[in-house]
Amino acid sequence: MANKTLEGLKDFLLRGNLIELAVAVIMGTTFGAVVTAFTDLLLDIIGKFFGTPNFSQVAVGGVNLGAFLSALFTFLLTGIVIYFFVITPFNRLSDLTKKKDEAPAPPVATSEDLLAEIRDLLKAQADKQS
Fold first, then answer.
1. 43, 45, 48, 31: which is closest to 73 by C-alpha?
2. Is 87 inside a domain boundary?
3. 104 by DSSP, 3-state: which?
4. pLDDT digits (tens, 9 = 90+) for 49-58
5. Total domains present in the chain
6. Where is the chain membrane-spanning (predicted)?
7. β-strand partners of 105
8. How far apart are CA 46 and CA 102, in angstroms?
9. Of 99, 67, 82, whose CA–CA distance to 32 is shortest?
10. Residue 55 within a domain
11. pTM, entire model
């Protein structure tokens, strides 16, 4: 019983999909760090433009909106970065591979075409015999 369970666990762990998922999680984590650094860079640029290098200090009427604004800008910038640097290139690459894969298929011979070919072969064979 234990050997069968361990064998099933081994098969599950060594399945290709699990390995690919693990690689995707690791790549996603490291890509998240890159996106976070880029977002921080853009937030610093935006902060210098408005004269406030850190949005966490922004308050309106005594209400501190800075944390919300920082989170909102981070969310929006992360979405923009992912869209333009991941989704758009992936879609372009996908379109290119689809165009290559969608090469025109050779025309399928209809029964009339096959019958005409048989007729021509029989005629050629009859001409050779005569």
1. 43
2. yes
3. coil
4. 877 666 677 7
5. 1
6. 21-43, 63-90
7. none
8. 45
9. 82
10. yes
11. 0.48
